[in-house]
Design a protein that fits this description.
Number of domains: 3
Structural class: alpha+beta
CATH architecture of the largest domain: Orthogonal Bundle
Radius of gyration: 23 Å
Distance between the termini: 15 Å
Strand content: 5-15%
CATH class of the largest domain: Mainly Alpha
Shape: elongated
Largest sheet: 3 strands, antiparallel
CATH topology of the largest domain: DNA polymerase, domain 1
Strand order of the largest sheet: 2-1-3
Low-confidence stretches: none
Number of helices: 5
Helix content: 25-40%
Order of helices and strands: HEEHEEHHHE
Length: 166
Amino acid sequence: MAGLKDGWRIAAIGLTLVIIAGVAVIACRCGADQPLEIILTPGPEYSGEVAVSGGISNPGIYPYGEEDTIGAIIRAAGGLTAGADAGRIELIVSGDDGETPQKVNINTAGAWLLEALPGIGEGRASDIIAYREANGPYRDIYELLNVPGLGETTLAAIEDMITVTD
């Protein structure tokens, strides 16, 4: 999360330096009495979805736009729960720029994220987590077939949406 924030900060500083350097070069090439016109073209607009979990009142998937901050996203998710550790909030961001959507890691996903998968309700999500806690991390997605009540049809429906790696 801090890396994403630092990346935006570095990009903003870099853009500012480029603009300042450009103005300085133009000022040197133009006479002092000539007017200077700067036209900035708008950059691409960023939007997508962010999955919010941890000590959040309403964990889930929320839309975000270019102007949204982390605080705004957390507020949209109902804010922190009482006694929540803000450092333990998890945000998983996916953009709408043609990237492949991020897969759900069945070795780390919370129940709410597993429940978002087709055919996986509250009970199956609990069973997936219970199996993981009893037997250690899943070695591959097909190990889900060892979870009681989860068959080949359900696995076929979610296999392109899940992974056991980051």
